[in-house]
Amino acid sequence: MAIHTLGIETSCDETAAAVVREGRVVLSNVVASQVPLHVRFGGVVPEVASRAHLESIVGVVEAALAEAGVSLDQVDQVAVTRGPGLVGSLLVGLCFGKSLAYGRGLPLVAVHHLLAHVYANFLVEDPPEFPFVCLVVSGGHTDLVRVIDHGRWEILGRTRDDAAGEALDKVGRLMGLDYPAGPAIDRLSAGGNRRAISFPRAKLEPGSLDFSFSGLKTAAARFLSQWTREGGASLADVAASFQEAVVEVLVEKAIAACRLTGTPRLAGAGGVTANRRLRALLRERCTREGISLYLPPVALCTDNAAMVASLGYYMWRLGKTSSWDVEASPNLGWEEGPT
Predict the structure, then answer these.
(1) Is a pLDDT exceeding 70 seen at residue 230?
(2) What is the pLDDT of residues 13-69, one digit of tens each?
(3) DSSP calls for 81-130
(4) Please, is 69 exposed, middle or buried when counting C-beta atoms within 10 Å of its C-beta (0-12, 13-18, 19+)?
(5) pLDDT, tens only, 72-115
(6) Is a pLDDT exceeding 80 seen at residue 337?
């Protein structure tokens, strides 16, 4: 009989629920976005986010079950994000997931949000074989991870300051773009010259797979404070040039990680992986280097519950279920394990 996993995701400002069969087949993937609530603030307000999760979560879970054509009697386990993320948002999903699992007598699998992003790559027809390198890029995280097997991975590199998504969002706001600024830069860049402005690329010490975007962000802020449209560069040029500086470093480090580890497979994960220029440059470089590239559909790059359900299924198969006293962990690290 097929195993159905109900996934719940509330780490930031998306209330999401999904039903996934056998960890691979998405039967439903419902996401209630809070962007309209936060746009006037120019960013996510934690208290507003947690209240919105409380209002939405029952309806979102019911919609996911209905869309999947699966009743609660057919759900075999509940997977829910425990961290990292906003503590108030995490608590809503985790407490709901705990209550539902306990009340139905189901196993609970509390999962790592970033590792769940990696598992979006298992929700496609041709998932990567182990081992593979994964570039995990989101608003708050930029990491390079070598995934050895289900439940086994090693960190190859991480950001030492700002994450790539954070840098895109902050500079986008300085440019006067609406929230969320990262996707706005992506759209604006389509009409700009990527070589119009020479922004710095932080390489760090030789052989390092870590990232640093604070210097680039400062350089962009300095440029914008002095920039006038009469200087020859348009706003689209600024957006395209800044985006290129971010994307080039991400791609160079990801390719270097594959070379250094002798791993001919590279995957992408996280919200920034939806960026069109990043996807295009990854394809271009991987083709040139003979590296197999795996990119989830854009809908599975941003926060969703299907990825949570997929990871939960594989952790359940490994016997890694969670106790009822598991807590939300807003700063949950990669080294703290899969659940």
Answers:
(1) no
(2) 999 999 999 999 999 999 999 989 898 888 899 999 999 999 999 999 999 999 999
(3) EEESS-HHHHHHHHHHHHHHHHHHT--EEEEEHHHHHHGGGGSSSSPPPS
(4) exposed
(5) 999 999 999 999 999 999 999 999 999 999 999 999 999 999 99
(6) no
pTM score over 0.85: yes
Q: What are phi and psi of 159, to 5 degrees?
A: -75, 145
- Residue 195 · residue 211 · CB < 8 Å: no
Domains (range + CATH), the chain: 4-119+300-336 (3.30.420.40), 130-295 (3.30.420.40)
Task: Tell me how far apart the 2 most distant CA atoms of the chain are, in Å.
Answer: 67
Burial class of 28 by CB neighbour count within 10 A (0 to 12, 13 to 18, 19+)? buried
The 10s digit of each residue's pLDDT in 178-189 is 888 999 999 999
- Helix or strand (DSSP H, E) at 249: helix 235-261
Instruction: Quote the strand ranges of the chain, DSSP E.
Output: 4-9, 14-21, 25-33, 77-83, 108-112, 132-137, 142-149, 152-158, 265-269, 292-294
Q: What's at 77, amino acid-wise?
A: Q
Whole-number Å distance between alpha carbons of 254 and 257: 5
At 179, which amino acid appears? Y
* Among the listed residues 275, 10, 291, the one whose alpha carbon sits nearest the alpha carbon of residue 134: 291
If one counts every other C-beta atom within 10 angstroms of the C-beta of residue 184, the result is 19
Q: What's the CA gap between 7 and 150, in Å, rounded? A: 18
Phi, psi of 113 (to 5 degrees): -60, -45
Report the distance separating Cα 306 and Cα 60, nearest Å. Answer: 13
Residue 77 bridge partners (DSSP):
5
pLDDT at 229 exceeding the cut of 80: no
